[in-house]
Design goal:
By secondary structure, this protein is an alpha/beta fold. The protein has three domains: 21-47 and 244-333, Aspartate Aminotransferase, domain 1; 50-241, Aspartate Aminotransferase, domain 2 (3-Layer(aba) Sandwich); 337-502, 2-Layer Sandwich (Ribosomal Protein S5, domain 2), CATH 3.30.230. The protein has 15 helices and 19 strands. The protein has helices at residues 25-32, 56-64, 75-85, 97-109, 126-133, 174-177, 213-222, 230-241, 247-262, 282-291, 310-324, 369-380, 398-416, 460-471, 484-502, and strands at 40-42, 92-95, 115-118, 137-138, 145-149, 167-170, 189-194, 207-210, 274-278, 294-299, 302-306, 337-343, 347-354, 361-364, 384-391, 425-432, 435-442, 448-453, 474-480. It has a seven-stranded mixed β-sheet, with helices on both faces. The chain is globular and about 80 Å long.
Length: 517
Amino acid sequence: MSGGRVAGMRRLPQGFRAYGWAPSTEELARRAGLDPSQIVRFDGNTSPLPLPSSRPGAIARALAEVNTYPHGGYPRLLRAIADKDGVEPGNVVLGAGGDDLILLCARAFLGPGDRAAIASEPTYPLYRIAAGLAGAEISSDRPAVTFACRPNNPSGALGELPAARPLVVDEAYFEYAGETAAGRIEDGVIVIRTFSKAYALAGARVGYALAETDAAAELNRRQAPLAVSTLSAALALAALASPPDVVPVIEERERLTRALRALGLEPLPSRANFVLVPVAEPEAIGEALLRAGAAVRIFPDAIRISIRDEADDDLLLAALARALDRPSPVAEPGGRRVRHLRATAETRIAIRLSLDGASRVHVAAGNGIYDHFLEQLAFHGGLDLMLEGAGDLETGPHHTAEDAALALGEALDRALGDRRGIARYGDAVVPMDDALARASVDLGGRPWCECRLEREPGLALHMFQSFAQAGRLGLHVDATGRDEHHVAEAAFKAVGRALRVALRLESAGIPSTKGLL
């Protein structure tokens, strides 16, 4: 019962407020009248996609041994973190995300009657919550410990490092700022880091603190046994072996900031992976954005927008322009669009597809020439396609190429819905130097692939078969030529051109005399 007492439990401080999680994607979709797949989360300050290292193979060994404890802890993970940050394993304290370590520091430094100071409010609410759970009050008068978020959440500002000691510095977003207090750990500073943000492991709940050796030992004495799971440790190790490049996020943050200013808004300068945007009616704007499928974090006088990537951020910008009744600084996204994820034991493929696009295409599954072929299909089909993924490329390209084609077919099938109003049929002829390709497409709902490629690199035919099967389409292709690359590329271009015709909206009815597909 909220605010009540349970026999034997210590009373929480007056005015204590527990951490309030954002609603689930399913709840937001219900409120907006949308399918959950159409909700894009701009409210969590997390990465839009996992890193390529976060795939089933990274946890296979840990999963095979999940029945037992990691006896001896995680020396490999401690060493990897220490090497990355230029310290020793004895300076590292593991935790279940940064939040666990904030709570640990509060338990270590605070008790009933103590005071904790919080720098740069408004800021992340867990510092106040952690102090309250320890029985302490918030005051800058002779505090037992001071908490600072740097860069600060929600402003994104990189403020001066407080002079107070002991000082706990939450550096959840430091990768985007390029500044750290880790060099001060011998001076009464404890630095908290997380794998949730730049390393895209928010669901794994893994983080760490850096502290002077004695302070780290005392924190470890107070930490729960094995606070991190074996699966999370394996994912963190894989991420450290192939660290992320945050430069694209920083560049996208600046692009989004310029576009927001073009809308007449004044986002605050940010050194994190989000921007805080003061607005007159944040609740009303937040609801309007949600109805368009964009969920932002709402504050009393602002909205906070997590940086995702250009395709997602343009979706938000277009919706924000409509909410403000101002010209959009970006092109409007197509109407028939879908987000889709295909995950297997070998691969993970994430897709954003718009059938009414402008040939804005990005394919990055690590598959070289086969990524290129899918780019050609989507570009010549007039589609907007973002396809990103990772797979067991160490065994060869087969699984990733196959699943990329299957995922694209599945996304196409979903985006078509009941296929009402489409032209249904399309055909095209594409010459390419020595090669000539002919393709015909039937979007009638019956999967069939009758394809002949005189020569090809090895998996092109199988990709066509997978695409036709998953997309529930009839596909006829005939391609000839002397160069295998040219033959296959011409074939994918021809399929794209044929698909462009078949996808065209011509009427409001079902394109079949049967009245259904």
